[in-house]
Specification:
The protein is an alpha+beta fold. The chain has 19 helices and 15 strands. The strands form 3 sheets. The chain has an 8-stranded mixed barrel. β6 and β7 form a beta hairpin. α4 packs across α6. The longest helix is centred in the N-terminal third of the chain and has 24 residues. The radius of gyration is 30 Å and the shape is globular. The protein starts with 23 loop residues before the first helix and ends in a 10-residue tail after the last helix. 37% of the residues are buried.
Length: 592
């Protein structure tokens, strides 16, 4: 990003530091004030004024205030602000007579300014980029303020710091890239906050740190990923990223010349505990190593067979910097999700083929329900990313065959086998809805089917493609959760086999969880009876349940607190990476 302000030369960003509370800034703030005492006029002024104090009336403040007003009213907008950010800056400064917000009444940068600089400098701890907020340039700019406190320089520095903080608050809350840029249909949250008003209040009340902390997603998963990000950055910085030489598959008990390299890699990743004494390098793929490899395989979605095969070797050799970037991209996507408060919810993570049901997004407890899922095919019928609310279940559902499947699969199958419908418990239907009458499979009716005037549905039963229950959260994609008769597919490591809907490994358990508070005591026995009954049964929920269908390739498993990684199944990470490399940030909504 180009810095348009010549007062702030660019230098490489400093190592990130985590902000740990207002008190942690006290010493840094005092040092900051000492460094800029050269700004105080010779006559001297009190040094205890704050950014929230009354507008300054000293002579020095009149020049910078007028310079700031002129810069804000210039065209094009000052600095690198977008039109929306320019409007935010106007809303921050105009009501207060264009008073500088980060210098106190005596002309010194306030403690809030020191706090803001530390927050922006530590943006990497949130998976964000300090250079987006001019963190290094602003820090260097304080030196220029000491040597040449000209009105325009003071105004520019104040504006740049405000712009950086407004942008940081917005990125931390919404994400750096808009979800819709990747075609994801997530609820709009553009008007959840007026960031200019939020920053103004935080400065007046001297609670900038708390305001920033309140913008981060209130998700346990987000907090844990943020901690793991710091750990992985430490590994990258302090340890050699040694590669494991490729070899034919190595099985437990085999002689293995590179066993010592494997040991070092697994210890670095935390899958193998350090030993008190190293001893001579091992040359055997012995049981301790095998168990550590199994732990690694479990964390990376691989078959936990302990065999050091091609896919396991490839996963072990993924550069640690790549894992860091996966965590950063996961944090970005978590910022896109709606804030659910304390509501119970269901989440499906597509690339990990997992579903979780949880009582609250903020809880640190392991979810009461977790299971495998099957998702849409990567190359043809990808499962979309979206959020909706589950409103009802249908036991013993019909499967109303979508037009695309009818056209691409069933009609060609009928050409080859006229008995295809009968063998798959399917029938021709005139009209919409489950109560529409079936018609005979005659040549005339098949002709009407090809014309789109009839449709195909599959009758309820054990062979039905939806299994014995489906969970409906109405959406434009016509995607839902359902059972499946093809349970053998859940033994596969990679499970993208569906036409876009999400197949459940254990639909009975999900029905138990969803119906746990519904009227009628929906026990496991009653649920199974509904699945094996003689007719379809719809059950409406008293309280809709949020369903989040999302996509991250790095998570923290609540059961063991360890990071788990997945392959970029649909290429969404690659696309997000490209957008983040060239995008300044999410659009700023215009004031209504």
């Amino acid at each position: 990003m180009k810095d348009r302000s010549p007062a702030f030369p660019r230098t490489p960003a400093p190592p990130s530091r985590r902000w740990i509370g207002r008190r942690a800034f006290a010493a840094r703030g005092l040092l900051f004030v000492a460094l800029v005492t050269a700004l105080v006029p010779a006559s001297g002024h009190p040094s205890a004024a704050t950014a929230g104090s009354a507008p300054a009336t000293t002579a020095w403040a009149e020049g910078p205030g007028e310079a700031l007003r002129q810069r804000l009213q210039s065209s094009p907008p000052p600095l690198d602000a977008t039109p929306g950010e320019h409007e935010e800056l106007q809303r921050l400064y105009r009501p207060d007579g264009y008073r500088l917000r980060w210098l106190d009444a005596s002309g010194r940068p306030s403690l809030e300014a020191s706090e803001a600089l530390a927050l922006l400098g530590a943006a990497r701890s949130e998976g964000l980029a300090p250079e987006d907020y001019h963190a290094e340039a602003l820090g260097r700019g304080t030196e220029n303020l000491m040597t040449a406190p000209a009105p325009d320089r003071l105004a520019t520095w104040d504006l740049e710091l405000s712009l950086g903080m407004l942008r940081y608050l917005r990125h931390l809350h919404f994400g750096r890239v808009a979800a819709k840029s990747l075609g994801f249909r997530l609820p709009s949250r553009d008007h959840e906050h007026d960031f200019a008003a939020l920053l103004d209040t935080a400065l007046r009340e001297r609670r900038l740190g708390a305001a920033v902390a309140g913008m981060a997603p209130p998700l346990w998963q987000y907090r844990q990923l943020r901690s793991v990000l710091a750990h992985y950055r430490t590994i990258v910085a302090e340890a050699a990223d040694e590669s494991l030489p490729s070899s034919p598959p190595v099985r437990p008990g085999d002689r293995y010349a590179d066993a010592a390299v494997l040991q070092r890699r697994l210890r670095l990743l935390g899958d193998l505990a350090p030993t008190p004494s190293e001893g001579p390098p091992t040359q055997v793929y012995e049981p301790t190593l095998v168990e550590a490899v199994k732990r690694f395989q479990a964390r990376h979605g691989l078959a936990t067979d302990g065999v050091l095969g091609r896919t396991t070797q490839a996963a072990l050799n993924v550069p640690l910097a790549t894992r860091v970037r996966q965590i950063e991209l996961a944090l970005e996507r978590l910022r896109w999700l709606p804030h659910l408060g304390a509501r119970p919810f269901i989440a499906v993570n597509i690339p990990m083929f997992r579903l979780w049901a949880s009582p609250s997004p903020a809880t640190s407890e392991p979810p009461p329900l977790e299971m495998g899922v099957i998702v849409g095919r990567a190359l043809k019928t990808q499962t979309p990313i979206f959020t909706e609310e589950m409103r009802y279940l249908i036991f013993r559902p019909y499967w109303n065959v979508p037009a695309s499947i009818l056209r691409q699969e069933i009609l060609p199958a009928l050409q080859r086998d006229p008995a295809y419908l009968a063998r798959h418990q399917m029938e021709l239907v005139a009209g919409s809805g489950d109560t529409a009458p079936a018609v005979e499979t005659t040549p005339e009716h098949l002709a009407l089917l090809r014309q789109g005037r009839l449709r195909v549905r599959q009758r309820p039963g054990p062979a039905n493609s939806l299994g014995l229950v489906k969970f409906i959260f109405p959406n434009d994609h016509n995607v839902y959760l359902h059972g499946t008769p093809a349970q053998g597919l859940f033994a596969r490591d990679r499970r993208d086999f569906s036409h876009g809907c999400i197949r459940l490994e254990d639909p009975v358990r999900l029905a138990e969880w969803v119906l746990r508070d519904e009227t009628g005591a929906w026990t496991r026995e009653r649920i199974r009876a509904a699945m094996t009954g003689s007719a379809s049964l719809r059950v409406d929920l008293k309280q809709p349940v949020p369903v989040i269908v999302y996509y991250v390739t790095a998570i923290i498993d609540p059961k063991d607190g360890r990071p788990h990684f997945a392959d970029d199944l649909y290429g969404h990470d690659r696309r997000l990476e490209r957008l983040m490399s060239r995008s300044l940030g999410v659009p700023v909504p215009r004031a209504r």
